[in-house]
Specification:
This protein is α+β, with helices and mostly antiparallel strands. Among the domains are: 29 residues; 105 residues, no CATH class. 39% of the residues lie in helices and 19% in strands. The chain is built from seven helices and five strands.
Length: 202
C-alpha cells in the first residue's frame, strides 16, 4: 500500500508539504502494524522468530546452510507434501513445490531389485540439493524402499532433415542398328567381265 496526499499547487511546498509527508509516514506505519498479525499466519511472510513454532508443529528441521526462503517453503507445504508422500505423482508435486525442478521416477527396472526406485535428476539438481533430497526421501519416501540417483546430462545437438523416399528412375534410349555390307560380283557376258557392286542392309 502506497499512500499519497495531493496538496493544491499553492500548498505543495514548505511546511504544508512537510506535514503531508509526515502524515503519509505515520499512516503507512499504522497500516503495517495492523497488517502484522495477519502476516503471521503464513510461514512465507511471518516473522523469523515465530517460524520455528511452525517448524516444530509440522516436524521440519532446518538443514545446514539452508536458505531462509527454502526453509519457509518446506514449512508452508509440509502438510501437502505429507499427503502426497509415497506416490509417483505426489513425489513430482513435492519437487515442484520446493522448486527443485523436474524429476523422473522409475520403478521395478530390469537389472535392479524389486525394492529399488530410481530418481533421474540433472547434475545441477543433485549437486545443489544433495542434503535436501536426502531429507525428502527420509520424510516422504516409501517405506522399505531403496532410492538410487541417476544423473541425466542433456547435450544439445543439431541436425538437418531431408526428403529421402528411396525411389529410383532409369532413363533409357533406343537405337536401331543397321549393318551395311558391300558385295562385289563379277558378271561375265560374251567373254567380257564386269564388276557390279551390291549394297545391302540387315
Amino acid at each position: 500500500m502506497k499512500l499519497q496526499i495531493k496538496l493544491p499547487i499553492w500548498m505543495n511546498k514548505g511546511e504544508p508539504l512537510k506535514l503531508a509527508n509526515a502524515a503519509v509516514q505515520y499512516w503507512e506505519r499504522m497500516y503495517k502494524w495492523l497488517q502484522f498479525p495477519i502476516l503471521q499466519f503464513d510461514p512465507l511472510t511471518c516473522d523469523a522468530r515465530l517460524l520455528f513454532l511452525y517448524a516444530y508443529q509440522r516436524d521440519i528441521q532446518r538443514l545446514n546452510n539452508e536458505s531462509l526462503q527454502l526453509y519457509r517453503r518446506r514449512i508452508k507445504y509440509a502438510c501437502s507434501n505429507a499427503a502426497d508422500s509415497g506416490s509417483v505423482a505426489g513425489f513430482r508435486n513435492i519437487f515442484e513445490r520446493l522448486e527443485i525442478g523436474a524429476v523422473q521416477i522409475l520403478e521395478r527396472q530390469h537389472g535392479y531389485d524389486w525394492d529399488v526406485i530410481i530418481l533421474r535428476l540433472s547434475d545441477n539438481q543433485l549437486t545443489n540439493n544433495r542434503e535436501l533430497l536426502t531429507e525428502i526421501i527420509r520424510q516422504y519416501g516409501r517405506t522399505c524402499r531403496r532410492y538410487y540417483f541417476e544423473i541425466v546430462h542433456t547435450q544439445p545437438i543439431r541436425f538437418r532433415c531431408g526428403d529421402f523416399n528411396n525411389n529410383q528412375r532409369y532413363n533409357g534410349s533406343e537405337f536401331d542398328f543397321k549393318r551395311t555390307h558391300l558385295s562385289a560380283v563379277i558378271v561375265s557376258v560374251g567373254g567380257f567381265g564386269e564388276i557390279k557392286t551390291l549394297r545391302g542392309t540387315t
